[in-house]
User: Which sequence fits this backbone?
């Protein structure tokens, strides 16, 4: 379990870096040369589209915050015994919520924008790996159950 938590922390840092770069692209005026290969593989099309913000907040910023919470949760679980079930449950909800949102964004890229951002796809691969890692730890599922079912009903 310790190795999976360390892997969760490292992947979360990678997600923060990818989301940070996507946030930079979102606000950059000049076209990005790193991500723009053609009309289909084009980060600028994705990062400047209608789907790049939620209520005026850049999706990349939401990613930074989400990955940051997963990183904090993994460090918390590595160093303390306090609030473990709560933290496991929060990480379970965060990872499945983020994965669901990443799948939605992939659908938007595929069916609406008809363009893909390789930085965004890499971030989506990171959240897929994080969700798999988190859900492969039995304590994650137990923590999530504790959010919805009281100890007296078990």
Assistant:
């Amino acid at each position: 379990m310790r190795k999976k938590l360390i892997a969760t922390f490292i992947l979360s840092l990678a997600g923060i870096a990818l989301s940070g770069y996507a946030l930079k692209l979102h606000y950059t005026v000049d076209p990005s040369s790193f991500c723009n290969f053609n009309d289909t593989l084009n980060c600028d099309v994705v990062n400047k589209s209608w789907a790049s913000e939620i209520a005026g907040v850049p999706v990349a910023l939401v990613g930074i915050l989400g990955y940051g919470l997963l990183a904090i949760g993994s460090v918390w679980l590595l160093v303390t015994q306090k609030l473990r079930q709560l933290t496991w449950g929060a990480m379970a909800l965060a990872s499945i919520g983020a994965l669901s949102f990443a799948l939605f964004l992939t659908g938007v890229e595929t069916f609406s924008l008809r363009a893909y951002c390789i930085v965004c796809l890499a971030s989506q691969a990171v959240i897929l790996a994080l969700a798999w890692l988190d859900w492969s730890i039995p304590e994650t599922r137990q923590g999530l159950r504790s959010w919805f079912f009281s100890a007296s009903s078990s």
About this structure: The CA atoms of residues 14 and 126 lie 8 Å apart.
